[in-house]
Design a protein that fits this description.
alpha+beta, four-stranded antiparallel beta sheet, eight-stranded mixed beta sheet, 11 helices
């Protein structure tokens, strides 16, 4: 997961809109690129381009290509060579056989390679217990925009595992949750009665050193790309098949800096894979899912998954300075669990202050009090919210109603009443995500090249006519001047 942003996105003069995966998209080292377009409020759509699906910072992956750009064979060959050179040095099967760990290279070593790493810091005699806890051996990747490997604290990890087993799930598709996968694998090897299995899908290929090919798939959750090809895809498909009544649930903890649209698209494809299994009764259902994300992304997630609801449980991380359990006020972890399961089924620990609201039929935090006017437990951040009669809703305790802005906001703010419409077309009444113009653009997915060519031809013809006219005028003046001199 990634560190949270300061708050919900605000309108900017221009922004990038994700059009999604496109058939035949070019590839970078992270798999097929995604199609984007630059938009400005109230203006026409800009030129489309492909960019890396996993990295939002060009410093991490500088792949860029215009959608209508013609790429030469030489450049394509160079790109393929570059992608090959930036793939992991060893295959999944080769990694399983390596057992001395180089801390600098983050690689398990074969005896023949020990001498090459003699000047590096490495750990000898790696125990079986250490091999079962790879997240404690590997350095977490903490690039907030690309990897952001903040790992579940034992408290949250144990809670999730207990909850999953209590709900009767026997297979867990762990998408970007290595610590949960690790705990399941470790417990399964120690306890004969423990019959829960897990498959880890993660972009960090280092985990292939510790897990078999049926336990780990190298996967990019932003473009639904399996780096292992059809074999890895089949591994995932087989895992999702519910044999002998073993129910499957997907648990995912994506980087918070990632695009919600891209993540939702991939998760829907995983759900579609689950529905395609031979079991009957999946046609009109969603695969059970826990999406772990900050509470202020609630509206964005509900746009793509209306059946989801947000739980009050605060998820904390072992290697993050801010997202720790036990903090108060605004310092509490903003990370929550979004799920399509019935809220009353999610039992939260009463010893941590959670209680059951009989009206809302779900567990809520101790500071989340039921509002009789809203008829709901309205707090999102763990603090007790207050009802504003003028706004007709509950707001944060630090907010006050501003008559100039006609809404509740922070006490110290600049009163700038803005009627911002749609970011794409500038019209009021709908958001950018629901803009008819953008929907039409996405459906088309291909620009009208004929129109563009005609426009370019007209422009060229206009330029030629103007140049011809200027030349004719200049020639006449020249002839007149010659006559005057003679």
């Amino acid at each position: 997961m990634a560190a949270a942003a300061a708050g919900p996105e605000r309108p900017r003069p221009s922004a990038l809109a994700l059009l999604g995966p496109a058939p035949g998209a070019p590839c970078c080292p992270h798999g097929p690129a995604l199609l984007f377009v630059k938009t400005s409020q109230g203006k026409e759509e800009g030129r489309r381009f492909y960019a890396c699906s996993a990295c939002r910072d060009r410093k991490d992956c500088n792949f860029f290509q215009w959608e209508d750009e013609k790429v030469s064979e030489t450049r394509l060959a160079a790109r393929e060579e570059y992608n090959r050179n930036h793939q992991p040095a060893f295959t999944h099967r080769q990694n399983v056989d390596r057992r001395r760990f180089c801390q600098e290279c983050q690689q398990l070593l074969l005896p023949a390679e020990w001498e090459k790493h003699s000047d590096h810091q490495f750990l000898c005699d790696i125990t079986t217990a250490q091999l079962k806890s790879p997240s404690q051996l590997l350095y977490p990747l903490e690039n907030k925009k690309t990897n952001a490997q903040y790992l579940f604290a034992d408290r949250s990890c144990q809670f999730l595992l207990n909850l999953l087993t209590d709900l009767g799930f026997r297979r867990v598709l762990s998408v970007g949750t290595p610590r949960l996968h690790e705990m399941i694998q470790s417990k399964a090897s120690q306890e004969e009665e423990f019959n829960v299995r897990s498959l880890l899908l993660d972009i960090d290929f280092r985990y292939s050193q510790f897990y078999r090919e049926d336990e780990f798939c190298h996967y990019n959750m932003f473009n639904h790309h399996f780096f292992g090809g059809e074999a890895a895809l089949e591994t995932c498909r087989k895992f999702l098949c519910e044999e002998n009544g073993e129910r499957v649930i997907m648990v995912t903890d994506p980087p918070f800096g990632g695009l919600v649209e891209a993540l939702a698209s991939s998760f829907k494809k995983l759900m579609a894979m689950w529905r395609e299994t031979e079991n009957e009764g999946h046609d009109n259902k969603e695969m059970p899912m826990f999406w772990i994300f900050p509470y202020f992304f609630e509206s964005r997630i509900l746009d793509f998954f209306p059946s989801f609801s947000m739980m009050d449980y605060q998820v904390d991380y072992v290697n993050h300075a801010l997202y720790k359990h036990g903090k108060t006020g605004r310092r509490q972890s903003p990370v929550r669990i979004f799920t399509n399961l019935t809220p009353s089924m999610i039992v939260l620990p009463e010893e941590e202050g959670y209680r059951f609201c009989t009206v809302c039929q779900r567990y809520v935090s101790s500071g989340n009090h039921h509002c009789e006017i809203c008829n709901s437990c309205t707090s999102k951040d763990g603090r007790r919210w207050k009802h504003c009669v003028l706004c007709k809703k509950c707001v944060k305790p630090s907010w006050f109603h501003c008559n100039n802005c006609n809404c509740c906001t922070l006490q110290k703010h600049s009163c700038e009443k803005t009627n911002v419409g749609c970011f794409v077309c500038g019209k009021a009444g709908h958001k950018r995500s629901a803009c008819p113009s953008l929907s039409h653009a996405r459906a088309a997915c291909q620009p009208d090249k004929k129109k563009r060519q005609k426009t370019q031809e007209r422009v060229k013809m206009g330029i030629c006519k103007r140049l011809a006219l200027k030349h004719a005028i200049f020639s006449k003046r020249k002839v007149k001047n010659k006559k005057k001199k003679t």
